[in-house]
């Protein structure tokens, strides 16, 4: 049980550091974008190679993106959307913020 408490304490300390919450949110968004693309690709029965070629990128870059390891540019997202015959929609929504 000590190990679990140590992990919880470490997480609290790290999240209290300046910028940690923003970095966590950015990583979460990158993961969610990658997961959405992976789901669409798999629904079509496509391999990473097929989608990466259609989107003009390498298979390894697509794999990193799908795993949430990179934050894509809007241009890349547009190429992926076009390759998947979908439309990219980017919008701003009001959020609950303490600031």
TrEMBL record:
PROSITE patterns for this protein: HTH_CROC1 (PS50943)
Pfam families linked: HTH_3 (PF01381)
InterPro entries xref list: Cro/C1-type_HTH, Lambda_DNA-bd_dom_sf, TransReg_Diox_bact_type
UniProt KW DNA-binding keyword: yes
UniProt GO cellular component terms: cytosol
GO MF terms, alphabetically ordered: DNA binding; DNA-binding transcription factor activity
Domain named HTH cro/C1-type: residues: 37-91
Assigned keywords, A-Z: DNA-binding
The organism's place on the tree of life at top rank: Bacteria
PANTHER family: HTH-TYPE TRANSCRIPTIONAL REGULATOR, METHYLPHOSPHONATE SYNTHASE
Name assigned to this protein: Helix-turn-helix protein
Species annotation: Kribbella amoyensis
